[in-house]
Amino acid sequence: MAAQKLVVLGGGESGVGAALLAQAKGFEVFLSDKGQLLEKYRSILREAGIPFEEEQHTEERILEADEVVKSPGIPEKVPLVKQLKAKGIPVVSEIELAARYTRAKLIGITGSNGKTTTTLLTYHLLKTAGLNVGLAGNIGDSFAKQVIDDTFDYYVLELSSFQLDDMYRTRLHTAILLNITPDHLDRYEYTFQNYVNSKFRILQNMQPQDDFIYFQESPAVADELAKRSPEVNRLPVSLEQAINPGGYLQNSRLIAHNRSLSFELDMAELPLKGPHNAINMLSAVLAAQSVGVDSDAIAEGLRTFKNASHRLEPAGTVNGVAFINDSKATNVDSVFYALASMEEPVIWIAGGLDKGNDYSQLDGLVRQKVKGLICLGKDNRKLTEYFTGIVPILYETQDVKDAVAKGLEWGQPGDMVLLSPACASFDLFRNYEDRGNQFKEAVQSIAN
Predict the structure, then answer these.
(1) Binding site, annotated residues
(2) Quick one: CA dihedral 317, 363, 308, 279, positive or negative?
């Protein structure tokens, strides 16, 4: 019998991992990327003997596939994807492919904000407790590549809405839904409900005994749950009321009850600060409890955790003015969390590629905390029009060094210069990491 043909669209970390797994499982594999591949991925594919093309999609070859694994970066509305669907060729994500071939228990984490922190923290809690755990999804090494040898008992997966859109049969044993606020609406026909539906795909295939952890004060999550009432073990997280089973914050103490396990710890002892991180920590604690991690191990894990770069990351202090790199804040909700956690007067650097932002939720915080706004982007009209009259001073630039210098010029000792863009980075930078790294370098060069 001829081998099934599997085509991978997109040759990044997830695509190359999917190609390697498919080859290992006996598929005839072809990888196609509209852009250029990184040299490291080219050499991996060549070494494995997997045919590939770059800077083009050969449609007749792709349309012969029995199945296609699509990079999360490729939208559904691309003509090639529409053709595949019209021909009835299944289009799935790398996560969907990999989940078929693992015996591990899966913990999946999604949300408009906080998912990277919560994923890294959940992984850290399981790892420090001595569990045999892998990290994958929107972060770290390809899930598919790790599943080739399938040596882990658990995987903690960060899942974007784009990955969830192409998942159909994957079953998560523990799912976390942190919040849903408008984001990526350009991919969802500018309809918020479409994006909500996408996030709720995390629940598909869950069984009544599986744990569903969610922030109950996220209005979109609460509204949607009222419509759906899924059959799962619900574990709400709250900042407003005591819940059992579930997790809550009371007098700055994290308290969580799941199955027969109870946990309590003062937030003052922990490196993560602010109410948004209380939600992230309570969610991770409940997930760790769902796989049997005890309180002592959880407390040790929380105390020793170091967050990812570009998430409210200290970037240096010059003349008493502190610089904070929050480049990963690519939507308005992330900026809300960042500003809410600032005690000091803020000089805010924002801007980039707008994804349909509504800045009105920031009004109160900006009036209260922001003494100046520096717009760092090619097209700053929306920001300047909205915040003129709300912030005392405004400045526009397309140069990150200039933005940092202006922040220092405006700043007094004790002030914070916060890079929290609310926008994608692709107008001036390769990605949010590049933006954050250039910001940190600019701060260092001024400090020196």
Answers:
(1) 111-117
(2) positive
